[in-house]
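Input for the complex:
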Amino acid sequence: MTDTTAEQTDTPDTATGFARFLAAFGLLRESWVGMIGLFLVSFWVLIAIFVDLLPLQDPLAQTRGAINLAMLTEDKTGVMHWMGTDDRGRDLLARLLHGSRVVLFWSTLATIVAYSVGMIMGVTAGYRGGWWDEIISFIGNVLLSFPQIVLLLVILTAFGPNSNIGVWMNTELGMDKSIVSGALIIVAITFSTAPQVARIVRGIVLDLKTRDYIAAAEVRGEGPLWIMLVELLPNARGPLIVDACLRLGYVIITIALLGFLSLGLPPPDPDWGKMISDGRQWGYNGLNMMLWPAIAISSLVLGLNLLADGLREISLRD
Amino acid sequence: MAAPDMNTPVLECNNVSISYYTRAGEIPAVVDFNLKVMPGEAVGIVGESGCGKSTVALAIMQYMGKNGDIVGGEIKFMGRDMRTMSEEELRDIRGSRISMVYQEPMASLNPSMLIREQLNEVLIYHEGISDEEASKRSIEMLDAVRLPDPERLMDSFPHQISGGQQQRVVIAMALLSKPQLLLLDEPTTALDVTVEAGVVELIKDISKRFGTSMIYISHNLGLILETCDKIAVMYSGEAVEFGTVNQVFDEMRHPYTRGLFNSIPLPGADRYSRPLVPIRGQLPLPHERPTGCNFGPRCDHFKDGVCNVKPLSMQDVTAHRGHQVRCERYLNIDWEAARPKAETATAANFGKTVLQVKNMQKYYEVHDRSLKALISGKASKFVKANEKLDFEAREAETVAIVGESGCGKSTFAKVMLGLETATGGEVILNGQEIGQISVHKRTPQMVGSMQMIFQNPFETLNPSHTVGSQISRVLRMFGVAKTKEEALEKTYNLLDMVKLPRDFAQRRPRQLSGGQKQRVGIARAFAGEAQVVVADEPVSALDVSVQAAVTGLLTDIQRERRTTMLFISHDLSVVRYLADRVVVMYLGQIMEQGNTDDIYSPPYHPYTEALLSAVPIADTSITKKHIVLEGELPSPMNPPSGCPFQTRCPRKIGSICETDLPDVKDLGNGHKIMCHLSEEDLRAMEPVIAMPSDKKKKSAASKSPGRTKAALAAASIATVPGTAAKAKPVAKKPAAKKPAAKKAAAKKPAAKKPAARKTGPERLKKARGKADDLKLISGVGPKLEQTLNKLGFWHFDQIGSWKKADIAIVDDELSFKGRIERDDWVKQARALARK
Ligand SMILES: Nc1ncnc2c1ncn2[C@@H]1O[C@H](COP(=O)(O)OP(=O)(O)O)[C@@H](O)[C@H]1O
Ligand code: SF4
Ligand code: SF4
Ligand SMILES: [Mg+2]
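Predicted:
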């Protein structure tokens, strides 16, 4: 133990960081649940990224006389509609696959924003404690005491694209209508999700901050920002990654729900929730229109849940 | 099942092997384990963490969990192979004929159930008796484990009682169904020393009273010595030595066992003249075990071609009945040879005073939100975490701060380090007052000159960052290193200093063992040219064999750099070994302080006396007074009036202790005691620990397995007055085994006796007519009655008329185990005399 080897190596923090990330996925192989989840999620992610390269119809193009076609039927022009068409003669397969990009983009963005806000709330409340903790917890409790859907409806109807503010943003700020509604969805989801995230983060931080390494950092005079960002949060990442997967699933459902209630992204962009609600008007004849987006939503959300389970399973081992 | 027969072992393990199945493959956690427990016998299993002790216990319970399995050998309970039993039979045996007590009491208690329900359930499940009857038996059992007010306790939830009480409840629960075998897995590790002493006392008592066989698992040799008849020493999944307590403690035949004894501080050792000898290297992981002897890589007697050829088996030690070792070369080793020498060092000469703590106070304000507090207007009150701390520390000096949980050690450390500011008084570091300056307002040099070593190796380093980045961050913070290169260079130097390889800088904490992490913690504390290092129990969480190495390293660095060390600890053996001066705290106040030698010999503060007697000592030749403190540590929120120790003090004088805070008495040489006892009384105290003057103890080692019990009995027999006049200040070893002499060992020289002796209480040669039944006084048993009769006390009225001075004299004559409750006797005797 006394002989020492002096090798010059740079601090390998970041290098091994990525390696460790990959290793975590290597471990995931041992959980078949996690592997199914990973497969489903990566399927949709790959589709979302490469959908433009696929030989698909234009998702917005309406074909005359090809309305509400059943799956696997050709229209008069001889074009095959693998999943059929919708009530405006648009190819369902194309819409569904393009929809994945919309859904994943907005839900991920909304989750990231909600998570950031929630983490800031939680980590400061947990680490600082005292009156600040009480205020944050109070706000969180108030927001959580509303039924989630009511909260979302209030925010979206009060500030939606058709409200005064929405119109002002659209006209005065020259923001695109879909951007406006997207931004609003993010705000609404942040209001409903961030308190939950904050609660989890606060709990973890309350536990972590009693560790000696936090005391060691305090004893050498580190500031609160360093302690929260460098000493606390990296150690919370395990449970938070698992939670983020689940959370993303909920957000996807929420966005679909908003689309279903016509409070989501404005037409004509394909949005799975909106697609279901479009089909609903046609009753039995719309089944085909509802079936595919419903499968898409469930498979993606299921994938995320399974992935979370798998991650949790491997993190509990060892 | 057959009735217990005195010749059938209660438990027999024959060649038991146990494996766990993990991702890494099969882990042979325990290999070829043999054990025989006879009725009424207490067998200890000692070993470092991870050596397989708990696995053995779980296997005996046939409770291996999902990924564990008994892969070989047989475990027989009452002569029947447990493998042949059905699941139903096993369920019935578990918890009724074999009970287990775990380290964490809350692991066995359901937090949301009343204690009544949990206790009754055991009886109702196993014996199917009625609820009332179960309650009655439960209350009796709580009383038997010496819990106060059992009826009230029955209707409490586990979290409403203290940790010590919880563990007693768990033991009561384990005993309820009158098991034949009680398994105790580190039952006192989570408890404070004085509370531990009480639980150990109870455990000893159990096997006597209930005839229960016990397996006592511990990493603490001293505790095993106090509780067990036989002992198995485990190392890396194997039993390496088995024998009676005396064989293993006095005539060990395995190098590992000897290494263990050499690496724990025993009374009489000190760090300058007789440093501890650590066992080099570390415990191999189960899948990294060497061929042949597992201890080979760490053994000084290793011989290539002998020790590393084939798996070793247990062999009988010639000429020792029932003594077995797993060592090929035990006959070739000179067991009488002097212990291996570690480098000795001369005592440092202390420099100027570095740190002065003057009347330092730290109060916390706590808000009571209960309705009652709101109504009474006392919504906030102060917790006096530190009250009038007053002491100094010099350059290169080690000052130990000793006390149990809640005594204010951590608060004191926080004020030192600037995490809290003092409420009053001063803390002066190098002439500069720092008690009021929080760490963020201190200059980097000030911060660097006062640093801390933490207790828990698993928490001291941030698991997310590499070792190197954590050390270099400290260097940058303290302004010791300006550039990245400089920081790296200095990091390497620090790693060299703590004797770790330099490539550890790139490792993450989880790749390090506990001892290695603690070394990094030491490096970090010394990174900024620290002048004062506060070490908070730096080795208590480490394995015994690495403790010595880390302690040695720490003290070497400290001596070399002439750093002042404040060593916070509850372990009085370690403190005696390495401290120059000792400060004893209780409930936020300093009870006693002085040079180490003065603290460990009379006069004592009554609390120090109790602490000293509570420390288990792994040396058969030492006799010790047993003082078990009554009650629990009071909460610092609600400290007692007068003397803080008043509620538990066995030497309490009377009401003055309850009303007045005692003055600090200066006994010279910096030895200060805060107590109402007069200086004369203090000086008249007898030593708690008696060491044999005769160091060659081998010859007289007793072969009697019932040694501990004999010692116990001895402790309660007093000598007849007159013989005590022959002063025996120090026991000679051969005599120490005889009860009467044992008593004398704990006695002080007669010359020191107070003059009051002549005017002692009235004594009678014979009873006036029929003697009273003194056993009616609670606390007096048949043994004590005999003793009292011998002393000339036969009647209640005699005892009832004892005065304080009389009590003191009688106390001198009696040295029992357990509480000293003469005041209470007098009261009871008076009441009985009136009848
Ligand atoms: N459930 C388990 N799965 C895998 N390995 C285990 C398990 N429990 C214990 N071990 C391993 O078995 C060995 C013995 O452990 P244990 O019996 O707990 O030791 P001790 O009680 O002496 O500290 C250790 O190396 C430990 O890591
Ligand atoms: S067998 Fe050899 S290596 Fe093992 S303890 Fe004995 S002497 Fe040491
Ligand atoms: S002052 Fe009284 S109660 Fe306190 S330690 Fe001394 S004798 Fe005991
Ligand atoms: Mg264990």
